[in-house]
Specification:
With 673 residues, the protein is mainly β. Helix content is 9%, strand content 38%.
Amino acid sequence: KEQGKGYPDTGYIAGMRMIFFADTSTNPWDWHVFGNTDMKECWDEEYWNYAGLNLPSAAGASSMWINEIRIYSQDDPPESPIASFTVNATSGAVPFAIQFTDTSSGSPDTREWNFGDGANSTEINPVHTYTEPGTYTVTLTVTNAAGSDAKEMSGIEAFESGGGATTELRIVKYANDGTTILNEKTVDCSWLEANLPIQGDGVTRYYHQGPITEAAWKERYPYKQYNPWNPEETVNFIDLGTVRGTDLADICDYVGGASAGDTITLKTSGSATITYPYSTVYEPDPRQGPAVLRWYDGATTDYTSGLRLVFFADTSTNPDGWHVFGNTDMKECWGEANAVYNGTLPSAADAAPDQVVEVRIDGSDPPALPVASFSANVTTGTPPLTVQFTDTSSGSPDTWEWDFGDGATSTEKNPVHTYTEPETYPGKYAVTLTVTNTIGTNSTAEVDYITLNARVASFTANTTGGLPPLSIQFTDTSAGNPTGWAWDFGDGATSTDRDPVHTYTSVGTYPVTLTVTGPFGSDTYVTTDLIDKIRVLEPRDIGTTTLYVAKVAKNGTVLNETIVDYHWLEENLPVQGDGVTKYYHQWWVFEGDPLNPAEDNWNSIFEGKGQFGAVKGTDIKDICDLVGGASEGDHIRLGSKDGYKTGLKPEWVYNPLPRQGPAVLCWYNAGGG
């Protein structure tokens, strides 16, 4: 990664080190210190580290050059596997590709996938593409030395393009003439989740009833008179899952909302529509509950189920305390004349459409003047600065006139404009938008909306660490068309080349300085602890780039194992640390109480071997979970390339006290330690 724009030392040459991300609760300077007394209070005494001088040392508990994590489990040796798997989607338009992920337990040796369309696979986590519309059942069979097991998943749906689920939703409000659009927005499921209140907890299940056929009735009540309204809510209700979604009222409010007397119409991807009065959306009876557009149903997490209306009914009318919107609830809440039917049978389930693509408000407001407004994806930067302007005006304007403040104009709705070098820095520009519809015109102006700053010196290096002699290619990335370059490599050497190559011959840490001159004057860029200096290391300081992770049964049988490297940890597991906050472990305290409960012994913290700097890494619990995790009674052992072993109890990794903090395997040090 480019120097100063990511993690330095892309070869991770310094290796991995375990550091406890302690809080600041016990330190008088508000530093993140894992102190000797913290170690005493958080750990059992037999685990305290004394580091050779019979003095406690929390810093000595931080192992370097880690290349192995091994969980010693209390589990028995493997038995027959139990098949299970997950999918990243359950429905989509053909060609429909699905990522299947094996989650079987019991360490299977082989896997056989049957995708239900004649195709098979023996991969662990295959990707399969359905090319024909249909509903498919997938079977996974797993086998090990102790036996085999199979798992089926039905309901995989591939449909023709143009129908089915969609992640986008058009929201539009019309004036009382039925043709003038007062406001219009298009959003998607992820926007709804991120920007509007969420309904549903992802645990509670919701149900809709109907239609109730005579056959379904007689199956439940063979000797009772048929009643398609079934007020007892005991026949033919559909489990919609542990849904989450967005209240239809909040969605309507995003474009101006509805008033008493207005109607709200939902349109599906198949062009079917259903219209609701204001009260259904804004004043719901508790037996109906809020009208919620569902984007999560407990089975998929990537919105592939599309949007479905779900009524979050209460439990007042259900004998089992379930959240069922029943046929009688619909009749009592809406009136029998407004009930929805499937053929001749009432059906609350049919009152809630699936695959919703549009919400339309037919309002009582008359057409009005447009109200100009806009946004931009960026407002500050260095030239050339390309800005995407987006019209957010209401009132359905027909024409747009933009003035970008630098002499350029546009009549596009959502123009893109590029600002070039200003006469003086900083360059500031007002942006004006004038919009017009059939009723009239409106304008808005944002003063000093766009700011252009002078470009500064910058550079990259093809590597930032290694063994001597270490040859590095420096590349100038400065803007503003510099005409002169002055490099200082921190070891006494200099250069005036634009893109010099310099060779470091001695072990050390070196700041690099670049000063550029040009029409803008001069500017200087210096590497710091947080932008990463050049590190030339001793051979003994070189770590390892790979990590072996294993879970072992109590008889020594390996239950699960994997090998990963630093790049994989960084890119696939959550990153701990921000590269700015510094962490410390307390070293030996030679004066006074060696436990130093006040944690104020400067030499043992700032000057000791536990000053680790601004680090980033991966939580050891996340690494352990790659092979099945650790439980109470298990034992976690870290091994390093020099043979050093560190034992950890699972509770220190999975439920650490704040004064210890997470146990983090650090692969990046931004400096300062």
